[in-house]
Structure formats: structure tokens, C-alpha cells
Amino acid sequence: MTPQEVLAELTALQAGDVPTHGGSTMAYVYDSGRAGVEDLAAAAQAAFQWTNALDPTAFPSVARIEDDLVGAAADLLGGGPATVGTVTSGGTESCLLAVLAARERWRARGGYRRGGSGRPRLVLPVTAHAAFRKAAHLFDLEVADVAVDPDTCRALPAAVAGALDDRAALVVVSAPSYPHGVLDPVGEVAALAAAAGVPCHVDACIGGWVLPFLDDVPEPFDLSVPGVTSLSVDLHKYGYAPKGVSVLLTAEPELRQGHWFSTAGWPGYPVVNPTLAGTRPAGPMAAAWAVHRWLGRDGYAELARATRAATVALAGGAAAIPGLRVVGTPVATLVALAQDGPDGVDVLNLADEATARGWLLQPQPPFAQPGGADLPATLHLTVTGATAGRVDALLADLADAARAAAELPRPVADPDLVAAAATIDPAALTVAEVDALLELAGVGGGRLPERMAPVHALVAALPRPVAERLLAGVLDLVYRPRRAAFSG
Q1: Mean pLDDT of the chain
Q2: According to DSSP H, which parts of 320-424 are helical?
Q3: Interval 358-370: pLDDT, tens
Q4: Contact in structure between 221 and 191 (CB atoms under 8 Å)
């Protein structure tokens, strides 16, 4: 094939993807809407696409770029003279490393000998990002789930306090939480954690590059808050850099050492890795650096304020649509919509109707809290710079979609299927058995149905371990390799 033919084939492959620009995809992607940002980022990324950030002594430009990005984040987010940081591949890796560092500190300080027994614990409000559950799985921590207030969806300090025993290795709060866009009581929780001798991490992956530029943030949330020991912020979100770039800040150098890996225990070159990866792409870092240099604080402030104003307008307009309500008090650029009253609009159906009108809005099934009131199904909307100019069009389509959704029957999971699932041991299921169950559920072959509301209703009704096994099975079907894909 010629280069032109190869690129044409790649372009054709994208025909079924959701749009990455224009503001209609309100999850996964972040579009500034600013002309020139993409071209600058692409040029900077191309300049560093062959550079290996594994060894900054061989590529000192990488060290300069990383130090500049960490310094900018520390200046913006309350870092003190001792603050250090690490550039990672994204928010998940930043969260993983924060948990790993906390686990290592717990062990180093004799966690097993302080009266606790068993594994260290990760204290998580249920609204904390799923990345922390992944960290607990990978690094062998036990998750201590903490209920949130069912009305505000904010973490409950008293519930956190009840989990701060000798096994607690880290407490997490969100600024804001991804599911509902609300700010946890960072100061109260961090003070409780500090009194118990437990580190406190602020997940500001989605809000850290927005909140510092706003005038209506109700309370401090960053490293300036006493008791906060680490903070994560993504530059490929509201830093408007390409995927994937995030920064993990730690209040002191010793904590950062807990997630570094160093070995001279083999016959090859000495290896030191500050992240989970060895070889690290420098291109996204360079792109983030370039976009930051161009926009500067003033450019980011302008984008943040415009996006926040659009979010406020969106929340107000959505709340006025019959059958819908806004969950909690959004503090940044995220809005969660729920059914208003027993006869309100089912938001799982609403998500399908919005898709039919050209908007990707993210459905979130209802969630049963441990020892607390359940959280309702919600519809998640992430507002970006590109969406800011389209709020009126979005509200018009949302109102039309709500009217259509109100006429639909509510999605209900097949009771026989749910009853059968209750008897299943998900750990014993083979891949073939999962494939067969997915066929029964209507998502066989990795083919998602046109309307997803029944699927989301089924996920919510199934026992959680079974649902998680089947969800993994869906992705397993999607990633079945095409044989001889590069032949002929």
C-alpha cells in the first residue's frame, strides 16, 4: 500500500467513532474549541514522538519538560517548597502511584505492627474514581467503602472517621467526583486523616486545571489544605493536551520515593522507573508543555470561566426540563441528571434518545451504597470549551429527548435471567460460558444493541461480581483479533 492508501484506510476506520471535536461527545474527550491548539499540540508531539522518556539523562529535554509541567501544577495547586511530582500517562496511573506510595509508607512505618492485622486498607467514598479500586486490586489493599450523603453526594466525614483504623493506608477525596461533579469536604476529611496519621489524596484529575481559575469554589481543596499529602491532575483533560498526560504531586519527596522502582539486580543497565512504565512516550508531555506555554494562566482562566458559565447555564436549563433534576451542586464542569420523582424521565432511556440526536451523554446505573441510602441512576455530562457555545442547542435537544423518553416503557431486566445469575459463581465461568450468557443478554459477538437502556438496567440488577465478569466478557469479544489482518 502507498502511504496515502494507508492513511485513507485509517480515516475510514474512524467512521464509526464518536466525534472528538465539536463538543457533542460529553465524556472521554476534551476539546478546547480554540483554533490552533490542536495544530500546536500535534507539531510538538511529532517533534518528540521518537524520544524515549525512560532515560532523562540521555534525553535531558524530557527532564526539563517534566520539571516545567510539575512546577506549573505545583504553583497552581498549592504546592509548597518541598512539593515534587511525576508526569504519568493519565489519571489512572497517577491514582495507582498515589496508592502504591501510601501502601509502601504504611509498610515502612510498621503498619502490620500497629495493632492492625491483615492487609492495609484504602478508605474510599463510593464516588471515588474506579481507578482506586484498580489500585487496590493490583497492589493488594482492601477497600473500605464509605457511603456518601444521598442528597449532596459528598463524602461524609463521620463515615470516613469510622474507617480510620490501624489498617488505613490512604484516604481519598475528590475535587470534584466524576459521577456527580461535586466537591468532597476536603478540609474536614484531611484533618481527620492527619489526626489518625493517615495520608490523604485529592483526586483532582478532572477539576484541578479548572477550579483554581474560578471565583465560586466553596472551599479549599488543594495541597495548601493541612493534611493533604498528594494530589493528581490530568493535563489531557482541561489542560487540553492530547492523551495521555497527568501529574501526580506529593507534598514531600519521601512520599514520591514510595512509587519509584530501582534495580541493579540484573546484568543489564541499571533501571530506575518513576512510573509503572519503562519506556515512556515523550510526545504527549511535549504537547502538554507546548499548549501550556501558549495558553498560559490567562488562556486557561478564560477557558475555565467560559466553560464554568456554560455548565451553570446547562444545569439551570436541565433542571427546568419536566421530569429531570440536577444531582448535588456541581462546582466545576460536570453535571449529573437524575429522574425527578417516581413519574420522572428515566435517564437510561434519555441517554439513548440523546444519542439519536447526536449527543454522547454517559449513563450511570443506580448504585447501592453500603449501609446508606442508594444513589439513583444518573446521566453524566462533561462540559468543555467546545461545548460552551452549544448549550442552547444541547438544552433544546435534551428537552426533546426527555419528551420522547417519557413515552417509553422503563427498562427492566429479565427477572429469570437475574434469578439465574444469582446462582452463578463468576470466578468459575469459562470464556465460552460468558460468551453464551452475553448472547442471552443481547450483547453477543461484541455487538452492542442500538438501545443500551435495557443493558444498563441489567447491569444494575445483576449481582455485582457477575455483572463485572460479563462486562469484561463484552470487551473480550470486542478484542478478538482479526487473523491475517496485515496480509495481502
Answers
A1: 93
A2: 347-356, 391-406, 415-421
A3: 999 999 999 999 8
A4: no
- pLDDT for 446 equals 64
**DSSP 3-state assignment of 488?**
coil
Q: Low-confidence residues of the chain, pLDDT below 70? A: 112-117, 372, 446, 483-488
Angle, alpha carbons 153-23-449 (nearest 5°): 75
pLDDT at res. 117: 61
Give the CA distances from residue 329 to residues 125, 172, 335, in Å, rounded to whole numbers and listed in that order.
17, 20, 9
pLDDT in tens, 403-414: 999 999 999 888
Q: Would you call 423 exposed, middle or buried from its count of C-beta atoms within 10 A (0-12, 13-18, 19+)? A: exposed
Domain boundaries, the chain: 44-262+275-290, 415-478
Residue 114's pLDDT is 55
CA angle 351, 178, 160 (to 5 degrees): 130
Q: Which residues of 231-265 are buried (b: 16+ CB within 10 A; e: fewer)?
A: bbbbbbbbbbbbbbbbbbbbbeeebbbbbeeeeee
CA angle (155 as vertex; 462, 330 as ends), nearest 5:
90
The percent of residues in the chain predicted with pLDDT above 70, rounded, is 97
Q: What is the pTM (predicted TM-score) of this model?
A: 0.94
Q: What pLDDT does 455 receive?
A: 85
Pick the CATH number of 44-262+275-290 from 3.50.50.60, 3.40.640.10, 3.30.420.40, 3.40.50.200: 3.40.640.10
The C-alpha cell 512546577 sits at 71
- 404: cell is 420522547
**What is the rounded distance in angstroms from the CA atom of residue 338 to the CA atom of residue 330?**
13
- What is each CA distance from 417 to 67, 279, 335, 441, 458, in whole angstroms? 54, 45, 33, 8, 9
Count helices and strands in the chain by DSSP H and E runs: 15, 13
Write the burial class of residue 60 (CB in 10 Å: 0-12 exposed, 13-18 middle, 19+ buried).
exposed
Distances in Å between the Cα of 5 and the Cα atoms of 1, 17, 265, 483, 486 are: 6, 20, 47, 21, 14
Q: Look up residue 316 and give its amino acid.
A: G
- With contact defined as beta carbons under 8 Å apart, do 83 and 74 qualify? yes
pLDDT the model gives residue 80: 94
Quote the Cα angle for 83-88-92, to 5°: 105
Q: What per-residue confidence (pLDDT) applies to 487?
A: 57
